[in-house]
């Protein structure tokens, strides 16, 4: 069984040879200096945008000091939006008005806020339809973000979060299993090996998954 390469399948081509116009591997679709995207991470949209970077992170500019870092094998549903740190306004003074946008001063203007942190998404993260990720959020590996959730702060590995503000609904696995999965890190395997081990990766037999790492 073969698997597409993330550099050449944009839009994603289905096994029957047809293009899935609404789904792209983001590493092939995004050309932006402040994005870092792992292999096989994809995004979907009911109406595919001309600019996927602008669609996903409308306030992440080429001159922004922060980055949006997304790991491998993540799944971004329609309507997911990253509100990165450059969307912030300065609010330590008397006015929050972003004068620098209208005066042309840009990032050197006095109304520019202090640089904010990167927004980081781990590997194998599923972000549901219409979810919003706030500036500086750090989402761990294997997290599931429910549709419409508004996520900020640190989300631990293999948590399920929902709501506004997003709260942990439950952990997907116990601490021992999570530690084992992080140690195995299947997303770093060669793609041929991943495809061969598909049934084990999407299953729930930890012993079998461990044996696949030998």
TrEMBL record:
What keywords is this UniProt entry annotated with? Answer: Acyltransferase, Repeat, Transferase
Per the record, the domain of life is Bacteria
- InterPro entries named among the record's database cross-references: Hexapep, Hexapep_transf_CS, Trans_hexapeptide_repeat, Trimer_LpxA-like_sf
Q: Name one GO molecular function term.
A: acyltransferase activity
Q: Please give the SUPFAM superfamilies that the UniProt record associates with this protein.
A: Trimeric LpxA-like enzymes
Name the family. Answer: Belongs to the transferase hexapeptide repeat family.
Designated name of the protein: Virginiamycin A acetyltransferase
Upper lineage:
Bacteria, Pseudomonadati, Pseudomonadota, Alphaproteobacteria, Rhodobacterales
């Amino acid at each position: 069984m073969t698997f597409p390469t993330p550099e050449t399948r944009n839009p994603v081509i289905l096994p029957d040879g047809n293009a899935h116009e609404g789904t792209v591997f983001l590493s092939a679709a995004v050309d932006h200096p402040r994005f870092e995207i792992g292999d096989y991470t994809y995004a979907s949209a009911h109406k595919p945008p001309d600019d996927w970077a602008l669609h996903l992170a409308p306030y992440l500019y080429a001159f922004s000091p922060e980055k949006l870092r997304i790991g491998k094998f993540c799944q971004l549903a329609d309507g997911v939006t990253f509100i990165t740190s450059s969307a912030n306004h300065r609010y330590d003074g008397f006015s929050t008005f972003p004068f620098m946008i209208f005066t042309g001063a840009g990032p050197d203007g006095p109304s520019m806020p202090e640089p904010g942190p990167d927004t980081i998404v781990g590997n194998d993260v599923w972000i549901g339809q219409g979810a919003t990720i706030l500036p500086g959020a750090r989402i761990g590996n294997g997290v599931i973000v429910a549709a419409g959730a508004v996520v900020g702060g640190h989300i631990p590995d293999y948590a399920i979060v929902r709501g506004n503000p997003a709260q942990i609904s439950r952990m997907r696995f116990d601490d021992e299993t999570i530690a084992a999965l992080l140690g195995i890190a299947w997303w770093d395997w060669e793609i041929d090996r991943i495809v061969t081990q598909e049934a084990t990766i999407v299953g729930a037999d930890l012993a079998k998954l461990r044996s696949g790492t030998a």
